[in-house]
Amino acid sequence: MKRILITGLFLCAILVANAQENVLEKNKWSKEKASEWYAKQKWITGANFVPSTAINQLEMWQSSTFDPETIDRELGYAEGVGFNTMRVYLHSLAYKANPKDFKKNMETYLEIADKHGIKTMFVFFDDVWGKEPKIGKQPEPVPGTHNSGWVQDPGDPASKNKENFPALEVYVKDILNTFANDNRILLWDLYNEPGNTDKLTSSMPLLKAIFTWAREVNPSQPLSAGLWRWDFQELNEFQAANSDILTYHHYDDEKKHQHVINLLKTHGRPMICTEYMARTNNSRFSNVLPVLKKENIGAINWGLVNGKSNTIYAWNTPIEDGSEPIEWFHDVFRKDGTPYRQDEVDLIKKLNGEEK
């Protein structure tokens, strides 16, 4: 009897896995469809965006701290240099706290972005930084510390606990169904840097699950999950095989970046670099952005405005007194809209065709 039970469970697991594979293949975009979609877009250029008044995704989206006035002002800075796309992180806890308000705030954000001629890539899950996100008042920034308050979604060990998957499926499918045909949304980025923060392949079940849920909804926009660490072979293979548009992160100089581009071209799909530009790593607008323009690869830098996320400071290199670093790590503008470097803004405008 025990052997029969084990065999039955094994067969059931095989059937579930096969059904998942069928769903993933059924609605995946062909290379031809992906190329046709990409050819219709202007050169995709922009930044990862969180308003300067938010330390993380929860502070951005919770109704008590949602800040449309700052969002409007700062997306105006982006419009002024010709940026046409923002990559914006969502958070499942903000949805869980109040699904109706969360979707209303998404709609408000999209109205503001559209007014500025900006499309949006929304990001669902994230394996980076704080492991235990909590709803409610968020912490104040730690002076001089990069992303001191950023939080994972759904967290660790929450992302490994399959008991959480049904609620996450409701969230993902509700958002996708609500905005499945919204042309203000460019692309759905399903999972940011799976395996980061020492999670490694423990992120694979949730990564497979969110691609399956998204394929079941089959939105009009393409799906992706960006490659980011080249020794994560199992994760990379799955992400590349299941993304309609190939997205990736790269924070090194133009020569190393070009090498990665050459390797990724072998997949035969359009590409968007959804994270780059870390000045003290020699990933700069001056040396990387022209390469992305020449290769017709979308260019989404980190980030836009210096604020509570403290991303002008380098990873793991705090300045404890909070004084401004000699050279900013990320970001383009100060809070008042003044460019950190005018020569960078001039280059961005030139490549975006915004020169007067």
TrEMBL record:
Domain Glycoside hydrolase family 2 catalytic: 158-283
Record-linked InterPro entries: GH, Glyco_hydro_2_cat
Transmembrane parts of this sequence: none
Keyword line: Hydrolase, Signal
Record flagged with keyword Zinc: no
First and last residue of the signal peptide: 1-19
Pfam family membership, one: Glyco_hydro_2_C
GO MF term set: hydrolase activity
Location of the region described as Disordered in the Swiss-Prot/TrEMBL record: 135-159
Protein's UniProt name: Glycoside hydrolase family 2 TIM barrel-domain containing protein
